[in-house]
Write a structure and sequence with these properties.
alpha/beta, Rossmann fold, two-stranded parallel ribbon, 11 helices, 9 strands, 18% strand, globular, binds S-adenosylmethionine, SAM-dependent_MTases_sf, COMT_C, O-methyltransferase C-terminal domain-containing protein
Length: 242
């Protein structure tokens, strides 16, 4: 929790909120870029201190979600020999997964400047690169808290690169992210909508998505079927097949 507070209370992350109203009223500029002059990932690349704040905060949040996944839907990992965590940060999530499912070889994939400072984690290999260009091959691709940073067009590009990375016959992707329920009076729904606002402030075009919006993205990227599993967390697990 401390790492999340340190990130969210940093001047870099607080400044964009002052431009959120103008953004919502339609001036089109990303609040993060107005405040900091660059998108969040380019800013992190040039500012190692801020990059560390992001990676530590993501790892802290990831521990909660990954524990809920291991407890609530471990069957998702049955039969997998390898798993690539796309935008996996410093490897915390994948490290927990390969510890729980030790038959899996883990590949943690993120931008080169993130991989350069990632600690060694037993059972996983770190690979640096750009997911818009190529994703390392594995039986399945794991995308946690990733697609909410991007607009539909960018998500479809990332999903297509993941589709190319998995086997055509039995490959799947595992997405861990909020699914906004349009009609439900669920306590966590407010948290999901609040996260949508955070995405507006902190990314260029990111957003949380409803089930219909997830269905659209997956269909456009060439995935023919998917299912959604609820876990004891704000996020759900979406398994999608080619
Ligand atoms: C919101 S963080 C999520 C980290 C991790 N998946 C988690 O759940 O804690 C998004 C990650 O995507 C990575 N990322 C952003 N652009 C990328 C790109 N073009 N290629 C690969 N990774 C990228 C960032 O460096 C960051 O680690």
């Amino acid at each position: 929790m401390a790492h999340l507070i340190l990130l969210e209370s940093s001047p870099v992350m607080l400044a964009p909120w002052h431009s959120l109203s103008a953004h919502v009223l339609g001036n089109g500029n990303s609040p993060f870029e107005v405040a900091n002059g660059k998108d969040v990932w380019s800013y992190a690349e040039l500012n190692p201190g801020h990059s560390k704040l992001i990676n530590d905060a993501m790892a802290c949040d990831a521990r909660v979600a990954v524990s809920a996944i291991i407890e609530g839907c471990s069957e998702v990992f049955d039969g997998l020999k390898s798993l690539v965590d796309v935008g996996g940060g410093n490897g915390t999530s994948l490290g927990m997964l390969v510890k729980a499912f030790p038959w899996i070889h883990g590949v943690n994939f993120d931008l080169p400047h993130v991989i350069a400072t990632a600690p060694k984690v037993d059972g996983i290999e770190h690979i640096g690169g750009n997911m818009f260009e190529c994703v390392p091959k594995a039986d399945a691709a794991f995308l946690m808290k990733l697609l909410h940073d991007w607009d539909d067009e960018e998500c479809i590009k990332i999903l297509k690169k993941c589709r190319e990375a998995i086997p055509r016959d039995r490959g799947k992707i595992i997405i861990v992210r909020s699914v906004i329920e349009e009609d439900k009076d669920d306590k966590l729904e407010f948290v999901r909508l609040m996260l949508d606002m955070v995405m507006m402030a902190h990314t260029s075009k990111g957003r949380e998505r409803t089930l219909k919006q997830w269905e659209y993205l997956l269909g456009e990227a060439g995935f023919t079927r998917f299912n959604v599993k609820r876990i004891r967390a704000v996020q759900s697990v979406i398994e999608a097949y080619v």
